[in-house]
Amino acid sequence: MSPLRPRVLAIAEAANPEWVSVPLVGWSLADALRRRADVHIVTQTRNRDAFLRAGLTEGTDFTAIDSEAVAAPMYKLASLLRMGSGKGWTMVTAIAALGYPYFEHLVWKRFGADIRAGKFDLVHRITPLSPTIASSLAPRVAAAGVPFVLGPLNGGVPWPKGFEAERRREHEWLSYVRGAYRLNPSHRRMLRSAALIIAGSRHTASEIPAPYQDKTVWLPENAIDPARFNLTSAQDLTGPLRACFVGRLVPYKGPHMLLEAAAPLIRAGRLVLDIVGDGPMAGDLRAHADSLQIADGVTFHGNLPHDQVQQVLAQANLMTFPSIREFGGGVVLEAMALGVVPMVVDYAGPGELVTDQTGYLIPVGARPQIVEGFRTALQALADDPHALPVKAAAARATALSDFTWDAKAARIVAMYDRLLAARQV
């Protein structure tokens, strides 16, 4: 074992290469770190088989912790209280926060002696991502004289003004009192005990209390795997513009606003739109396309396997994504990696990933302002699309240089090294 490679115990309760969202983030980051450090991953037993299928060796590369005695009933409770698949994420996080301490209790029971004995240079909790879920491990690890790294933490982006109806349709009742987590003494102990806090968004970084800002760094939550996004958009400007939306068909993602914004150009035959994804709004969106007389110019693909999503997206000039409450925005990076120019609302995750050089930022506002912003930007591009290839090349270069999982892991390992070097002074 090379002394130049830090020995890391990576806590990733949610980590799975075969799933999406938080589990895929947890897996992708932990796996990328393995290529640059001596990492042993600790995950929940539900991920065990996927780890084995990915080629990892149990006991050597990872340990699966069986916390199902608490996790299973908590999952059932969250499914009941969220009142609909894909809704009530604040409720899901709150219920997870109740069951998570048992997982960390079992982690400490299994690895506490090894941590105290100095078998790891540091402990890094990768998931949960939510900053509301406290860690009982943090003070124990710190007391053992081992640095505890936390993050990327992300979540809790406020709902923009004018979208209360969408908030209610998402069953986000608990979001009104989300800030109460700051009163939890365990949360303060976690932040106090952490040697490094990685914030996955600027909003989350701003929520870290002032006494801990000096050990907080901003590093976007999401990244991409170049092997999974290996096509390149041709940016064909000879025909009508082609725009693409990829995501769950739910109110806060804004697909209804996109239809309204694009309708004049679609009716005129100057733009076609692909919508990839499914969700509770699917039927209403198809009916809305009919009422706007644009059904012939809109293709609803439904849910597609990953390789087919890439094929559809890579045919587009633009990734049009009017989501008004996106924590990370991984799909935006995926589009950029394919050379598809993103057009996003300048708010939360996507607004932190896109610049004027790599895409189009539409000012956040109430629904009519966002619709008009997208409509104006799309009209300008239909009139003169020649800026698209330049932005597409810049977007692809940025994604492949700054936003791969390997690049992200390299930055984190550099943080490890600085942290460990400072402790030796």
Task: List the SSEs and their pairings.
Elements: E1 7-12, H1 22-34, E2 38-44, H2 48-53, E3 62-65, H3 68-81, H4 89-116, E4 122-127, H5 137-143, E5 148-153, H6 164-169, H7 185-193, E6 196-199, H8 202-207, E7 216-218, E8 241-246, H9 255-267, E9 271-276, H10 282-291, E10 298-302, H11 306-313, E11 318-321, H12 330-337, E12 341-345, H13 348-353, E13 360-362, H14 367-383, H15 388-402, H16 405-424
Parallel strand pairs: 1-2, 1-4, 2-3, 4-5, 5-6, 6-7, 8-9, 8-11, 9-10, 11-12, 12-13
Can you tag this structure with a few keywords?
425 residues; alpha/beta; Rossmann fold; 2 domains; 7-stranded parallel sheet; 6-stranded parallel sheet; 16 helices
> In CATH's first tier, which class of the largest domain applies?
Alpha Beta
Distance between the termini: 23 Å
Counting helices, strands and paired strands, the structural category is alpha/beta
**CATH-wise, what's the superfamily of the largest domain?**
Glycogen Phosphorylase B
Domain Glycosyl transferase family: 241-379
EC number: 2.4.-.-
Keywords: Glycosyltransferase, Transferase
GO molecular function, one term: glycosyltransferase activity
